[in-house]
Amino acid sequence: MLKNQFKIAWRSLRKRKGFTLINILGLSLGFGCSILVFLFVQHHLRFDNFHNNSDRIYRFATEEHRDFIEYEAAVPPGFANAFRQDYDYAEKVAKYVDRRNYLITLDGYMGRKQFTSEVAFVEPEFFDIFNFPLVDGSNGAPIAEPNTAMITEEMAKLMFGDTNPINQTFEIENNQTITITAVLQDLPNNTFVGEQIFVSFETLKSYDEFMSSETWGGLNSSLHCFALMRPNQDIAQIENQLQGYVQKYRPNTKNVHHYKVQPLAQTHLDSRYEGGIDTKTLWIFSLVGLFILIVACINFINISTAQSTYRSKEVGVRKVLGSFKNQLFWQFMAETFIVSVLALVIGIGMCVSILPSFNTLFDLELSITTLFQLKFAGFVILLLGLVTLLAGSYPGLLLARIAPVLALKRKVSQNDAGGYVTRKALVVVQFAISIVLIIGSIVVSKQLKYAIDSDLGFTKDGMVMIEIPEYIELTQLNGLKERIAQNSSVANVTACFGSPGASNNNWGTGVVYNNRPEPEEFSLQVKAGDKNYIEAFDLELVAGRNFYEKDSVDELVVNETFVRKVGASSPQEILGKPLSINGGSLNAKIVGVVADFHDRDFHSSINPIFIAPAPQIYSELAVKINLASSDEALSHIEKEWSALFPDYLFDYAFLDENVAELYETEQRFLSLIGVFSGIAIFIGCLGIYGLILFFVVQKTKEIGIRKVLGGSIQHLVALVMQDFLKLIVIAGIIATPIAWYFMHRWLENFEYRTAINWWVFVLAVAIIMTITLATISYQAIKAALTNPVKSLRTE
């Protein structure tokens, strides 16, 4: 019986090849998108789930409560040892400090090799908490001693080729010689650890006094603390206990810390604490994938129900010969199943073919091997069953209920076979989904353009940012600046702690204004730079003057936000007032006020800042060049750099590119929603094209009569198109409030955001209308041009 049903189903599908191909193509695109979304979501949900005790691993984080709450995936340097000594909640506690772009130098028989790499300074307990096994499979961590390191297999291959790396040495930042004591197996791609060089924490004392200390005076986002908790711990109770640390270790500060305990599984999914992706984003991706599948199923349902009148005779004959309703239903379900299986196979093929491009777009390493895992097989089977049921059940029920008398007399109307109402409702849903996706694409694109193209309050075009060696002498730095500035393609040079915005170097500190008895509630951001800083970045002085560089710092410049925060009525009012910064380590008077500039991305409000010379913390050189002769300028800079620092690599980045990178997540989100919008529209067009074929056939006689009575071609084309245009308008009315709500919620993530203008909704509807008209115009014009004699002969 089952074999016979599939044989008949196959014959029926072959009989209507065109519509079968439309259904298969639409469903295959739906399957392909759903599979890609599944792989994407599964990848992010599986971060760091491979560790032996992943359910007991936690990260400590900090909420900083001042005039507003800031979130840091870090704790003060003294936290780890205090937690070890004060409580017995954890079996192991370990500190982990990640550093970017450290210079690695090797001197071997093949000569000198240099490259930059991320480096992690870790305590030995780190490898007891996490399951990163050595090459021989053991879990030892022999890096307790200073100047020892572990590297991955991939890094060992890069550094030493086929030579045994154990006991080999290399230098970090041309400062310390490090001995390799062990090799780790290559790290999986679904872990928070991005480094491939792990150096003993004791070595950090040679590089960073603050990070390796036991102070509670501040935070650095590079320092993380993890714990392997004992079984069955009450995390809420632990967090309550940690509130006592505020009074115990930080009693005299306005910056109140609330220490949080995060499960390892949540660290990647919480964007507040430097998570790789937000849970809301995964939900959005999942919903978009579901919408694409729904659009494909709607296509199938619409085309199938439209064909019901043409299959009515077949149904009538079967019923007269004794077929029951359930037999007819399962016959149609067999056809749906065959189409779904074929579409699934093609969809998997599509997924495999575009996976490399998808990985490039989202900076992932999703593997085809995932397609052979048990979870994927279960997902595919569930998806196949769901699509078959969703797409086939309604058309199957409609066919099964057709009265045999009406069917044999060819008197089955569209209402008898499901009617226009249901089909129109489904088309409206289809159009509404496409319009929502288009509105989303327009709003996201508009916000990104607003963020990237807006006046940030400083110059970013033509600014070249160069990292300078950590142990450079001030005389060397000044000499380098003078030699670089001699080229006519160089407009200005400044040494600084970081650019005004889009900098990895952010440092907030406490401040006492005008000898007030209490520190201010807010944190003051440090923007250290030499006397050229304000001019090089085109910062606007609205009051006072620039500072003078002296042997000791006694002058500084603040921004307009600082003026408002301290309650001054004008920038002039605060000129000459004293500031005590960072617990009194810097005392100076205010000599100038600059206009506000965006020191962070548009997600955050502008912070109060101060600018002052501080050569001891300069980490970058900013060079303003003429873009018309950029090659000449860069060549000159590299030449002067190499002459002064032959032992260091010359590396640079354009500031405008750094600004654009701040919105990398949004750019990828825009790419995804744009691609999926295009796919949804394409699938919808396939369905509309299939429907218009039936519509034209049904209207053939009417078109012939109207043409005989003098109807113009324009009028006849409008007759064919008007129903679809009405549905698009209705879909636009439904989609507008839905899209506005979701995009309004998305824009709330930005402190500075664009408006959702009325024309966005009109444009989205117009786009759908134009594409739909282009899809159906050929068949509409063809019907209008048909000889009316031939049309009138059509039954």
Describe this entry's structure for a reader.
The chain is α+β, with helices and mostly antiparallel strands and 795 residues long. The protein has 3 domains: 2-42 and 278-450 and 664-792, no CATH class; 54-267, no CATH class; 470-647, no CATH class. The strands form 3 sheets. Strands 13, 14, 15, 16, 17, 18, 19 and 20 form an 8-stranded mixed β-sheet that branches. It has a 6-stranded mixed barrel with strand order 3-4-8-5-7-6. Helix 2 (17-45) packs antiparallel against helix 12 (374-400) and helix 9 packs parallel to helix 21 (664-698). Residues 405-409 have low confidence and may be disordered.
Tags for this entry?
795 residues; alpha+beta; 3 domains; 6-stranded mixed beta barrel
Silhouette: globular
Instruction: State the share of residues found in helices, binned by percent.
Output: 40-55%
How far the N terminus sits from the C terminus, by CA atoms, comes to: 36 Å
Q: How many runs of DSSP E, i.e. beta strands?
A: 22
Summed up, the helix count is 25
- Give me the oligomer status: single chain
Count of the separate structural domains: 3
Output mean pLDDT.
82
- Tell me the radius of gyration: 34 Å
Q: Which structural class do you get from the secondary structure elements?
A: alpha+beta
Low-confidence stretches: 405-409
* Major beta-sheet overview: 8 strands, mixed
The proportion of strand residues reads 15-25%
